[in-house]
Amino acid sequence: MNNNANNPYTPPESDVNNNLVARSSIPKVIGIISIILGALGLIFGLFGLASLMFASGALDALSQGGGMMGMSKTYLLGTTALSVLTSIWAIWIGFKLLKYFDIGRQHFNYYTIFTIIVSIFTFFYTKSMMDEMFAEMSPEMANAAGGMSAISSLGAFIAPIILIIVALLLNQQNVKDCLSK
Hints:
The chain crosses the membrane at residues 29-55, 75-95, 107-125, 145-170. It contains seven helices and no strands. The two termini are 47 Å apart. It has one domain (24-177). Helix 2 packs antiparallel against helix 4, helix 4 (73-98) runs antiparallel to helix 5 (102-135) and helix 5 runs antiparallel to helix 6 (139-170). By secondary structure, it is an all-alpha fold.
C-alpha cells in the first residue's frame, strides 16, 4: 500500500517527464561561439575603422606610393566597414541560436553563403594587386613574397570551410527539430 497516496502534500504522478525530448546543445554552443567571435570582430573592426579615419593623410600618401599593395583607401574602408556589419550580424545570429530560434539557423546559412562570396571576391582582388606588386619586384623577392602570398591565400578558404561544416551541423534534422519558429 502506498502511504503517499493519502498525503495531501504529495504531488500527483504525471507522465510529463516521459514526453520530454532532449534538446540538442549544438545551437547553444554555436550561438555562444558566434557571439564571442562576433564581439571580437566588432572590436577589431571598430579599431580598424577608427585607425583608417584618423590616419587618413597617411593612407593617402601610402596609396599614392603603392605602399598598401595597391589597395585603395576606398577598398580598405569598405572591407573594414563590411567587417563591422558582419560582426554585428554574427552577434545577432548567436543570440537567436542561443534562444533556440530557427531564424538564427537560417541566417547562419545566409551568413555562410555571404562569407563564401566575399572570400572569393577578396581572394581574386588581393591576388590581382599582389601580381601587380610582384611584377615590380626582383625575381628573388617575388619568389619569397609569393610563398607568403600562398599562405595568406590559404586563409581565405579556411573560414568558409569551417562555416560550411558548422552549417551542416546546424541543418541536421534533430537540430532543426529543437529550434522554434
